[in-house]
Amino acid sequence: FQKQGKDMDKVKQRLAEIANYVDKFYRALNIRVALVGLEVWSDVDKCPITQDPFTTLHEFLDWRKVKLLPQKPHDNAQLISGVYFQGTTIGMAPIMSMCTAEQSGGIVMDHSDNPLGAAVTLAHELGHNFGMNHDTPERGCGCRVTVDRGGCIMTPSTGYPFPTVFSSCSRKDLTASFEKGVGMCLFNMPEVKVLYGGQKCGNGYVEEGEECDCGELEECMNPCCNATTCTLKGDAVCAHGQCCQDCQLKPSGTLCRESSNSCDLPEFCTGTSPHCPSNVYLHDGHGCHNVDGYCYNGICQTHEQQCITLWGHGAKPAPGICFERVNSAGDPYGNCGKDTKGSFAKCEVRDAKCGKIQCQGGANRPVIGTNAVSIETNIPLQEGGRILCRGTHVYLGDDMPDPGLVLTGTKCGDEMMCLNRQCQNVSVFGVHDCSAKCSGRGVCNNNKNCHCEAHWAPPFCDKAGFGGSVDSGPIRQAGKSVAVTPQEKFTAFQGPTAPNQPPSATLTSPSRPAPPLPHSATIFKVTRSHASAFDRPIANTPIDVTPTKGGSAIDYPCCFIFPGMSQLFRQRTSFSTRLTCCFHTNGSSFKSN
Fold this sequence. Notes:
Blueprint: H1 8-27, E1 37-40, H2 53-71, E2 76-81, E3 91-92, E4 105-109, H3 115-130, H4 168-180, E5 225-226, E6 231-232, E7 244-245, E8 248-249, E9 255-257, E10 267-268, E11 295-296, E12 299-300, H5 303-311, E13 316-317, H6 320-327, E14 359-360, E15 372-380, E16 386-394, E17 411-413, E18 416-419, E19 422-425, H7 431-436, E20 442-444, E21 450-452, E22 456-457, E23 463-464, E24 556-563, E25 567-569, E26 573-575, E27 578-585
Parallel strand pairs: 2-4, 2-27
Antiparallel strand pairs: 1-24, 3-4, 5-6, 7-8, 9-10, 11-12, 13-14, 15-16, 17-18, 18-19, 20-21, 22-23, 24-27, 25-26
Helix pairs in contact: 1-3
């Protein structure tokens, strides 16, 4: 705020440009970012913000889950701060965490006079949430922009000129993440009523009074929509959606979104709407289909897949004694994460399988990257002989927590799952009570509704009908049978039997310094706007800026909310996400990550 001469118009223009840049970056990946809200902490920080980035991230994510998420539904939150983080860190975010209640977010520092700098860092950390790893030399990533012109957004460090494009590796990582079930909330379009900035024909969102919206006239390729008036052409009934074909609605029971993984459920057209129903997946705690694990946020996490991620194919989890002995140490090589003070926490015996992952077999060294080292522990047995336990100590750069820790949602025993570094019973989700109401002819979805087999009707699968759920549409059309894959036949969801494939992660440390950080702060509300080009982002819609009481020139965090990453990915469906970004400005210069 001070940097902009305490001129509110300049401040809101800067923030609009940041939002526009992030949206523009992700459009290249068929993802839209729409600004829907803002929270300002004018009197006191609602969570501790310190120079320790790990602690700040931990505290912010906890606050988001407990306070922000229940008040304002969104898919991702980013705290943007001017605080000096230790070392070279200017951002930090958990990987493959998009849409999760616990870890879908990150922290970002506003480190440049140019708003493009903050936008690039935000896009980078958001990329980690999506499952994108750093573009390290050993990965052989293709980037259409040379390093001297900025390179690509997911490079380990950010300098000037700033990167504005994603590499081939980022695109592959994103594809792999979606195939594993990351980002289940992205299928659901945000409510246009919550978007800030007012209504505008040509912004790509169908708003009140519009029949369609295919973007600006020069970019509209939709044969069913008049881009100038945002009305349907001729005899068109629809213009958008997976259940709209040749400007007409597809029949009820038409498959519009396949199951994407062992915890996902299919969706079908209703015959009354051009849009595929919102994405649903198996209730948390439900057994994965054909995988020895449990579903959590639509993903099936296992120790085996994580061992393969770290050690390559042929790796498998070590015996339980390895987890118990190693993780009871409470040091960098064996722990249950860090406590709120940043110290390594010892694992209780019952929680040992939720600490540092312990493996056997695989490659001679970790395959996760050049900064990962092998930590081997030999444990003598009473009956003679020894067990070799293989762990990892990984430095992925200053913007990533330890990937050697067991992931939330991983099975740690019969009917048990890792939650908050503790091995807890899946009954905490109420999955058994929920499934009991489905009459043995369906499964419970994440909305706690029954998803019925093809010849039974929701809501309780106790009467003849067309299958599906009240959320997902009917599985079959009246008088017709619809072929479904074995994964969609719910008799298949009887128990886990085989491992699935692992996610991938490769990150390295920062190296290049960033431009200096301006001294600025303010309190405001920001609306969504639209940028026409990278080099000239323009706010095409009005921005509501409302000062609040109790602020000085420093220490003012606030939250952007960027919901709406709508996208057509492959031929699957439209994605959307609600992203909350929080700004806390009071700092000076920092190095980049």
